[in-house]
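Researcher: Sequence of histidine kinase follows. Predict its structure.
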Amino acid sequence: MPVRFLSPPQRVDALIALSGLLGGLLLWFLGLYYGKPVAGLPTSLALVALVVMSGTELLRRRAPLTALAIGTAAVTLDLCTGTLLATVVMYTDLVYAAVLYGPPSAVRRIPRACEIGTVVATLLALALIREPAALLLGVTFALITVAPAWTGVGIRVHRDRADAAQLAAERTALLAELDRREAVGAERARMARELHDMVAGHLSAIAIHSSAALSIDEPGASREALGVIRENSVQGLAEMRRLIGLLREQTGEADEPAPTPTLAGLDALLDRARTTVHDDRFSFVLRDGRGAGALPAPVELAAYRIVQESLTNAVKHAAPGEVGVELGRDDGALVVRVRSVLGDRPGPRAPGAGAGLAGMRERVALLGGRLSAGPVAGDGKTWEVRASLPVDEEEWR
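Model: Prediction complete. Tokens:
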């Protein structure tokens, strides 16, 4: 509160105070004041009330209740010593400002106090004067106090509603921005998963066969490795173009939508894995126990990508043996299993960033499913990736 007292008044408040002071002095010198002094008080005290009232106008925003209290004393002195119109008008402004700029309690208490004061003043006037003119005094008192008080209430309510509406609009804009950022983050994560799942297998095959071509000094083996490298390069480029086409489709730049991979392409995935490994000790087997019925597109895409990433990891890490891909149903869910033999080599055939398993977990989590990856319990020689993807029975038909 002391800081508000010490801060300079606003320009509007200073202009109101100066105008009221000059107007009151002009009325005084012209002799335009009303009423007779009470108990022989000198009329010069009306000038004191005018100066004090003008000073309180400087506090109408910074300390409205203090200004109202001082102004009430000043207007009382003015009414007892001649009544300058300028003093009364400035007091009505103090009542208005106390309601508008005061604390929330002022909105409730000041209008009620003004109404009670008007009733009491009217009754006192009737008791003292005993004439109908006393009612006119009551009306005048109401115009000085009740009218500006309720005017301040109306304007303050309107201002508070405008502030609340602005705050609500800012909150809505903030929530919209947070939703936009979340959507952008989710889209980036989806694009990262798609990019990894589509390209990682081809790049792994290129790395494996390029290493073989460099380590084996046989023209025939090198030529065969280069052929596999070229094939995977072409396929990887085609997948990249498919992803670019998908992105353009979302922005309205593609002529036709790009095809989404489905479980019907698992045989091609296994053939690609056989070509990548190029080792007769490996075998890739697909056991499809889904039964009849189509699956929702998000489930098919997730299952396809899980098998694709699992085969890529098996090509890089597994030891020679069977790599089995199993599809089945379990209590209304699509179950995907990919098993391979645990390798005992010091390192993988191709480098990796470790993002494949994280991408699979994200895909399964988005569908509300479960994913586990690790050695089979009680075996210790088999690595299993198992994903359970919920499917609505009404959709599995």
